[in-house]
Amino acid sequence: MITYIILMLCLGVLIVIRMAIHLYRPDIEDSEHRVRDHPIEDLNDCYDFVIVGGGSAGAVLANRLTENPAWKVLLLEAGPDENVLSEVPVLFPILQTSFIDWQFATEPSNDYCLSMIDKRCKWPRGKVLGGSSVLNAMLYIRGNKRDYDNWERMGNAGWSYNDVFPYFLKSEDIRIAEHQNDSYHATGGPLTIEYFRYEHPITNKILEAGAQLGYVVRDVNGEFQTGFTRSQATVRDGLRCSTAKAFLRPISKRQNLHISMNSLVEKVLVDEYRTVYGVKFSKHGHKKIVKASKEVILSAGSIQSPQLLMLSGIGDATELKELGIFPIAHLPGVGKNLQDHTAMGGHSFLFEYPSDKGARFCFDLNTLFSFGNLIDFCVHNSGLMYSMVEAEAMAFVNTKYQNPAEDYPDIQLFLAPTADNMDGGLFGKRANGITDETYAELYEDLLYESSFSIVPLLLRPKSRGYIKLRDSNPNSPPLIYPNYYSHPDDVKIMVEGARIAQALVEQPALKEMNARPNPHRNPGCEEHELMSFEHLECQARHHTLTIYHPVGTCAMGPPDNPEAVVDARLRVYGIRNLRVIDGSIMPTIVSGNTNAPIIMIAEKASDMIKEDWSNLPQEIITECPKTNNVESKTAYFDEPSKMQTTPYRLDVFNETTNLFPNLADTIKITDRVKRIHKNKEPGFESDKKSEEASVKALPANPYKIKSGLNIRNDFGTVSPYAEDDIPPFLPPPPPPSRHENVYIPHVMYPQRAISDYIFKFLRIK
């Protein structure tokens, strides 16, 4: 009953705020630039590109691809448009578990999330236009330079820090005066970066304590990352700047962009040649198939991009067959390699203001939603409504396991001016799913006492989890196993991070505020000595928090990596016209919040797509796939030679082979192909036995593959090729008994497809 009353009070307060915004802040509603939702009956049957997911990556892609007026793009988003309440920074925890949140949760575990309801950590993900950029804490962090250099060392050409840095700048509009003339920042982009407008007095004291601990207060998005900083955030005029606000509203009038909200994609459609030709989705109970003449792009995030691949028959063949899903491509890395930034909750500290510094401060309902605060927000553009209670400041620090000289910190500290006791359970307890027992033990006799939190976060976890399908129903949430702390080094580093937090509190700047730890211990950890290794490990395993940064489940990697799902141009291995562009492609997690890197990935991928599809010879004109508007295991094609491909590359599955780097180089060989055909040289007879010979009849490789190069096949194994060989896309498959009933379409040996294409191009009959 009490919970119901509190919920009704919260609802009433939100209604009042909504009315106040409507009356006094119409600029927040921005009704003139709001994106139009296209009804299902108004959608075309075919587009050049279909983007699945309108979040941090999808919104960027929709903007950049429609810069080409000749390209028609459909953006499918499962949720609605963002609500004006989502723009108010202080309300962000309330958005979690709301109707714009997918409300995922990890599977129960006895090793982590022990203080959460049913031993499950909540994993909020944005089900809204703008995706998780509408739900997140708005923190703008790029990560460490070495993160991206390591990606390139792993075999992902073009992803070094020097390669990706311009794409951070491309989207940025920094409005922090001291950084506007800085070479590490840029102005004029669509994504606005500011400081939070409201700052709690304790925040400056925490930064001062950081300096006393020996760290520099600096721009952690600049030359060096190690240090303390006031949080840079994706806010504009104090309000949230989501990717929908930054990238979609300014182009809402573009005629070549259609956006369909509340549209759940159920499956990616693949034809008999392993070419993606569209998607099947549902909207308000109606189902529709939409085709793509160029590509389908999955930007559904690290949970739902792999889920969609698996629902479409792309993943571990054995696991798919167990669920009754017809395997189309065996990619065992789909859903694997799950990484997340885990943090230790419950690390709160009490403090007191000196008598001359003002009254006690808290975030209870009466204070936060008082008439005075509403007036400040609506009339004076100031006050608590502009605060970000979770991390007004942050730090990147080194434990004893990391060399400080390397500027590669292993712990991030969120420095929050509040703790879970200060809101009476309204925000943190509800958002994280903390049990009543845990909350009562930690905070019951400290409710609304002045407190702050220092939350240590593991920047580069070594633990790896995975995502699996629950069943073959696209409406069912997947099974999420993050496997937090499964690697012992993660526990050691987290414990040291908590000790650094304790050392920070012992600095003079905070001692003068009488800062001290919460005297209560997490239930289940009472037997351990306070601040001992055993106590801190216990707290980490009980009060486990996600920082909402799952990545890696469709990892980018070279073809000899059996766990890789996409290549360096983000094309799905073994499938044509399908890319994944979101945080799931990160091979390793970045050292910081992931929203800015995901936006960068989408910016870079947009240029890749433009490079691949622009400036093609006039003869190469993509058309809508000539399939029936029905779903089938083998889609009907009038002419196999009309299958659509990524701008035609013989190396479409692996750019690193450098066989024919682009279409123009492919065409260079066609004269000799034509002569071979005209002179009736062996290799181009029309019978089936000629397929392999047709490729051998091509000229010797002028681009010289590296000797002994391993080319990935579709079953996770590799086959070596000699220096002058011209391999097919994929080596021949293993004997059928190895993967019984796995669909092995003709395109696995696409020599006929290659020759069909070349003959069609040359008009050879």
TrEMBL record:
Keywords: FAD, Flavoprotein
Domain Glucose-methanol-choline oxidoreductase N-terminal per the UniProt entry, residue ranges: 126-149, 301-315
GO terms assigned for molecular function: flavin adenine dinucleotide binding; oxidoreductase activity, acting on CH-OH group of donors
Identification of the protein by name: Glucose dehydrogenase [FAD, quinone]-like
Assigned protein family: Belongs to the GMC oxidoreductase family.
Species whose genome carries this gene: Bombyx mandarina
Alphabetized Pfam families for the sequence: GMC_oxred_C, GMC_oxred_N
